[in-house]
């Protein structure tokens, strides 16, 4: 077969391969504790599931408009207003099957040979993969220089030149679980005013998963950037809806006709019952989010403590999402060696840091979307493994 050349530049998300490997080992009868996958281990709230069932019973089973049913886009606008006080017109909101297509569409829209796109390393791997796929130059900014694994806004600003088309920010970040607070985002947003042609892509998928009562510094807080801002968010993490495939995004006005064409050329639309479920989630009570965050806080504290008790392992306190990203250099292993040993000797699936970029060779990612019992058992097994 003769494949298109740019396919060679397309990367992948190895967390899925690790999940498959862990399942294979499990199928042989061995116990495997999965701290590899990035999805909440909670159930989608009941009222959300009921809304989808009702939509099916009400006959919402045909195609719907590509950009998302108006009721769903309006629910997103109500939520943005409630959370950030911003007045957004529903024409600027796009509903997609999960948050991921927003990356795919935005990078396809702005990436091409000769263009540069700045992105975090380590960061969610699809960004680098998609930038390379389009032939644009992928320009990473490291977030490992700082002990709390937070990016330095000044460093990001120093990477911008006349070829830079887009800047990607992920906050809170996957894989590091680091959260950058408002003062640093204020500084960055202020610096970005000097580059009026630059598109700002803010991945806020973990915006409702921030610890210690801190406020989410959404880019919706900066109205002066609104006309060149893309915000990726969605239901997957906030409402434990990863498998439903439902995401929303905000786009500059000029992008809308292109995004609608991209949708029509690819997925057509998100199925209607899922969009009705999404409305119920946004308009319903936040009780499920609060309960989930209470549990995630306990687990974060537990895993942070247990990781720092391991010989040769250091871990900063995660500020958001549900990941811990320890440096394991002191064990004498690379992240890849450490993760492999954990899988085969300790029965614990985790992801090596290099799955998220080249700079994270001495790191591994633990997802603590697992019960406290499983977290304790996994860390006990790793402790024994390290002797
Ligand atoms: N952004 C980040 C930073 C993520 O970690 C993920 C999923 N792990 C996504 C976006 C995509 O989410 P979805 O499952 O809704 O496509």
Model description:
With 387 residues, this protein is of the alpha/beta class. It has two domains: 5-43 and 287-386, Alpha-Beta Complex (Aspartate Aminotransferase, domain 1); 61-283, Type I PLP-dependent aspartate aminotransferase-like (Major domain) (Aspartate Aminotransferase, domain 2, 3-Layer(aba) Sandwich). 39% of the residues lie in helices and 13% in strands. Helix 3 runs parallel beside helix 9 (272-283), helix 10 runs parallel beside helix 12 and helix 11 (335-346) packs across helix 12 (372-386). The chain is globular. The mean pLDDT is 96. The site of 4'-deoxy-4'-aminopyridoxal-5'-phosphate has 13 residues, from loops.
Chain-wise SSE layout:
Layout: H1 14-27, E1 33-34, H2 46-57, H3 70-84, E2 93-96, H4 100-110, E3 116-121, H5 126-134, E4 137-142, H6 153-158, E5 164-170, H7 182-192, E6 199-203, E7 229-234, E8 247-250, H8 256-265, H9 272-283, H10 287-308, E9 323-324, H11 335-346, E10 348-349, E11 351-352, E12 364-367, H12 372-386
Parallel strand pairs: 1-10, 3-4, 3-5, 5-6, 6-7
Antiparallel strand pairs: 2-8, 7-8, 9-12, 11-12
The structure holds 4'-deoxy-4'-aminopyridoxal-5'-phosphate.
4'-deoxy-4'-aminopyridoxal-5'-phosphate binds next to loops.
